[in-house]
Amino acid sequence: MKQIIMITLKGIFRDRIFQGIMALAVLFLVIPSAASLSMRQVTELSITLSLSLISFIMLLLAVFLGATSIWKDIERRYTFSVLSLPVSRPAYLAGRFLGVALFMLITASFLGVLAMIAIKAASFIYPSVRPVLWSAIAAAILFDALKYIIVVAVTMLLATVSTSFFLPVFGAVSTYLAGTITQQVYDYLQTSSAQTEVFTIVRKGAILFYYVIPNLSGFDLKIHAIYALPIDVKGAVLTALYFVVYTGIVLSVGTLVFARREMK
Amino acid sequence: MSRILRHSTLALLAVLLFAYGTVIGPFTEYMKHKPVEEKLGYLPSINVLRYASADHKELMGASLVMKVIMYYGGVIEKQQNKVMVQPPDYQRMSGILHGAVKLDPCNMDAYYMAQSFLTWEVKQYKLANDLLDYGMKYRSWDWMLPFFAGFNSAYFMKDSKKASEYYKRAGELSGDPLYFSLAGRYMQEAGQTDLAIAYLVAIVKGERNQAVRKNYQTRLAAFKEVRRVELARDRFKAARGVLPATVEQLTQGGFLAPPPVDPYGGTFFLEPDGKVSTTSRFSFAGVQNEKRQNSGESHERN
Question: What domain range includes position B208?
Fold first, then answer.
C-alpha cells in the first residue's frame, strides 16, 4: 500500500493539471495590494482573500485530480496490471485515497505558508488594530484540507460504481455545494415556520439527507481566522472525529463496492 | 500549414485586431457611463447569496462592500473635482451593505461605510444605529461601533441617555478615558459643534481611503469654521448684550478675523436664534442646488 501511496503522490505532482491549477498560487502576490482597498480592515481582508484562494485551489484539485484518480486508472486499464500484482482491491483503493489525502495536506501546507507570507506583508504595511491569530489561520487551513479530503472520499466511492468521468467530477462539485449548505437547511427545518410550512415527508426526507451527505460547514473556520476569534476546542475535536468516522464509512462502502466490481 | 493558409490567418488576425481597436473605445466609454443601478448591480435575495456563496460568505460580503466603496469613492471624487454627477444612490448602497453584514456580520468596512452616509447624507439615524447595534453583537471587542452609535445618539438624535450608554461602552472596550469623558460631558449637554469636531478628528485619523478621507477633512474644516463663528458670536453677545444678526457684523466689529470660509463653497449666516448655518448644507451638492434654484434659501446645519 505504501508503494501505491507514493505512486499516487508522484503521479499527481507530475500531472499537468496540477501544475496548471497551482499556477493560481501566483495570485497570493497581489493579495496585499488588493487588501489595501479596504477602509478599516486591511489585514482581515488579506486573510479573507488568502483563505478563499486556498479553498478555491483545493476545490479544483479535489475535483480534477482526487475525483478522477480511480476513474483514470480504470479507463486507462492501469488497474488490470496493478491488481494482477499481489495487491488486494481494498489495499489499492485505500492506497489511492491515502495518496490523494496526503497530497491535499502537503498542498494545503504549501499554500498556507504562501498565505501567511501574504498576510504578514499586508499586516506589516497596514498594521491591524486586532492582533493576527496565526493558530486560528493554521487551523482554518487544516480543516479546509480535511473538508476536501472528505469530498475526495465521496467521489472515490462514486468512481467505484461509475464507468463515466462525469459522475465523480459532478459528484465532487455537488457534494461540496450540498455539504456546505446542509446545516443551514437543517437549521431552517428546526424553526417553527418550517414545521408548519414544509410537508412532514419533505422535512423528514431532508433531515435524512442531512445525516447522509457530509456536513462540511463544520470545517469552515474562516470567521475565526479572519477576526481572531478563539476556536472552540471541543467543537474542533468533534469535527475531527466526524471527519475520521465519516471518511471511514465512505471508504468502507467504496471498498465493498469496488471488491464486487466487474473489471472488463 | 501552407503558406496561403498562414497568410490568410495573419490577415484575419490583423482585421480582428483593427476591429478590436475600433470597438474597445466605445465599449470602454459605455462601461464608464453605465447607469448607477447597473454599476452597483442588482443584488439577488440575500438568502440566495448565502446559499450560493457556499463557504465563501466572508469573501462575498467583502466583495459587496468593495463594490459600494468603489462606487461611492468614484462619485465623491467627481463631486470634489466639481464635476456635475448624479448624487449617489444611497438607498441601493444601504441595501447592499445590509446584505453584506448578513453574510459577514463582522465586516467592519460595511459598518463604517454605512455610518459615513446614512447619517450626514441621508439622515437615517435610527437605521444607522440599528445597523451598529447589530454589529455590536458580533464585533463585541470593537469600541468604534458604540463610538459611532454614541455620536449619532448625541449629535443627531439628541438622546443624551443613550449617547452616554454608548460612550461608556466605547470607553470600557477601548480603555480610552476620552470616551468616558464624552459620556460624562454629553450628560451635561456639551456643545454640539465640539462633539462633531472630536468625532471627525477621530475618523480622519484612521481613514485610509483618500477620497473618503478628503471628504471628512472638508467636513472637519467646515465645522472648525462654524466653531470660530460660534465663539465670535458668543463674544459679541457678551460685549453688546444681544445676538448679532449677521456674520458680517462679527467681521466688521472685529470679533471674527479672517472671515469664515465654507470649504463646500457656501456662505455662513446666522439663524434668528443665533445658530450658525451655511447655504451649502455642508455638501457640494447643496451648493449646486443653491446655484440652480438661485433662491438663497437658508438651511439648517443638520
Answer: 35-213
